[in-house]
Write a structure and sequence with these properties.
single chain; 483 residues; alpha/beta; ten-stranded mixed β-sheet; two-stranded antiparallel ribbon; 17 helices; 14 strands; 41% helix; globular
Length: 483
């Protein structure tokens, strides 16, 4: 018993010292969300090596915002891991998920965490504007289009290295090790992780790298460690689920009786005859874009994340199928910068290339992309640029799925067009205590889809039994545009 009390006393002393050190490392702030709501919080930071493999590495700063727990007996800190790669926890907390950030405080301090190379942790990483691309009238094959991306990435790699950036430090594995340093900085024995999309990729890496430091994990739209590149056949299967959802609404079913056939018709016409489009600009000038099949596949890839965006895709391809370009012109007025060369950010570029793809999956991807509805463009420019930086790959061992008994909740949307229900189940198959909740009619960004999702997360965090395995959310009217 004496030894036990000695251990407890030492732990309490360590915690007190950590709390004091934490107070010195943080500043009190008023955090304002995008909707104007405010909350008192703390902004903090800690330093880590940019590249732990280099004993002479420079130090970089990792920043976060901490929302104190509302509980009298808080549990482990809950660290939000943003998607992308390239998203920020602080930016996410200001957006539509602000209310969920606030409600999660009942379980512990909530950390809006900015991963290395982003937001408060950007460390002045310069954006690279390459000299490649930028000709909106150039007729290009898939191979030529991809080569521009490879050339841009090679050029930008040299640019960043010249600027003193150690690109070898910008990998998911290094980010997982940052979480260990965050835990120590916070004076916590363990962390709870809460992530979505690429954030789940980072969480799975942390489960492998620092398993004893992770307690509970909440994930949505899971991207497995070998799933940086999604498989085109799985994308085609998504279109089948989208058709079934559309068929549940009589008006939508009548308007879109054969989504895959419609998409293939439009792609076939653009392949045979690219379309020269005039795009009016705000200054009164007119820009032109030669719209090609690969452009349409990129549009589709961007619009299948969530059902409300899929409604735009359906309207867009239906209008093009009918020879009407007004919707496409309007979208390009909002989102396309004429004749802009390829611009890149260091963190997302490096993270995706390093996570990579193994040879067997790459071969299967290339076979499936030849006939898939969106071809090879869902995660473009991956895998087309894989290997552009010689030796920059974490390897097959990194891509092996995690195993173990960490408690994990997975929320998987049936209308997620970016990470798929089948793939998500495969990504966590080795985790003995993973509970998958299938969220019918939900897409990639599903956290705010229903209160039932929030209730499930809270029940999981409280370790309540009897969690649901299925949740159904309302399907938006697929004949209506969300703007």
């Amino acid at each position: 018993m004496k030894n036990g009390w000695t251990w407890i006393s030492a732990l309490m002393a360590s915690t007190v010292m950590s709390a004091a050190a934490l107070a010195q490392a943080e500043e009190s702030i008023t955090f304002e969300a995008g909707n104007g709501e405010t909350v008192e919080a703390f902004r903090g930071s800690f330093d880590v090596p940019e590249n732990r493999a280099d004993p002479d590495s420079r130090m970089i700063t990792i920043g976060y915002v901490r929302f104190p727990s509302t509980s009298e007996t808080p549990g482990d800190p809950i660290v939000y891991l943003a998607g992308g790669p390239g998203g920020t926890g602080t930016g996410t907390a200001r957006g539509q998920r602000f209310a969920l950030f606030m409600s999660m405080r009942e379980h512990g301090d909530v950390i809006a965490y900015d991963q290395r190379g982003t937001g408060l942790s950007e460390n002045d990483l310069p954006r690279c504007q390459s000299s490649y691309g930028g000709d909106d009238l150039a007729l290009q094959t898939d191979e030529e289009f991809a080569q521009d991306q490879r050339d841009a990435i090679e050029e930008c790699g040299a640019f960043w290295r010249e600027a003193g950036v150690d690109l070898d430090g910008y990998t998911t594995l290094e980010s997982a090790r940052d979480l260990s340093d965050l835990r120590e900085h916070l004076g916590a024995q363990q962390l709870d992780l809460w992530g979505i999309s690429y954030g789940s990729h980072l969480a799975l890496a942390a489960i492998k790298e620092i398993p004893d430091e992770i307690d509970q994990v909440v994930l949505a739209s899971v991207e497995g460690l070998d799933q940086t590149v999604k498989m085109p056949a799985r994308t085609d299967a998504y279109f089948g689920r989208l058709q079934a959802a559309v068929n549940s609404q009589p008006a939508a079913a009548a308007r879109y009786p054969d989504i895959a056939g419609m998409v293939r018709r439009v792609l076939g016409r653009l392949e045979a005859e690219p379309m020269l489009l005039d795009i009016p600009q705000r200054d009164g000038s007119v820009a032109q874009l030669l719209v090609q099949r690969h452009h349409a596949q990129q549009f589709a890839s961007m619009l299948i994340s969530d059902p409300q965006n899929a409604a735009i895709l359906l309207a867009l391809f239906a209008s093009l199928d009918a020879g009407d370009t007004r919707l496409l012109t309007g979208l390009l007025q909002r989102f396309h910068t004429p004749n802009e060369t390829i611009g890149l950010r260091a963190m997302p570029t490096a993270m995706d290339i390093a996570s990579g793809i193994d040879s067997a999956r790459l071969a299967a991807f290339q076979r499936e992309a030849a006939t898939g509805l969106v071809g090879g463009y869902l995660n473009f420019p991956m895998p087309q640029v894989f290997g552009a930086w010689d030796g920059f790959d974490l390897g097959d061992e990194f891509r092996e799925a995690p195993t173990g008994d960490v408690e994990v909740l997975v929320l998987s949307g049936t209308l997620d067009g970016r990470t798929y229900v089948e793939s998500q189940a495969e990504a966590v198959a080795g985790l003995l205590n993973a509970h998958i909740v299938t969220v019918h009619n939900a897409g990639h960004n599903l956290f705010m889809s229903s209160d039932e999702i929030h209730d499930t997360i809270h029940a999981f965090m409280r370790r309540e039994g009897g969690l649901a395995s299925d949740i159904t959310v309302d399907l938006p009217d697929m004949t209506q545009l969300p703007f």
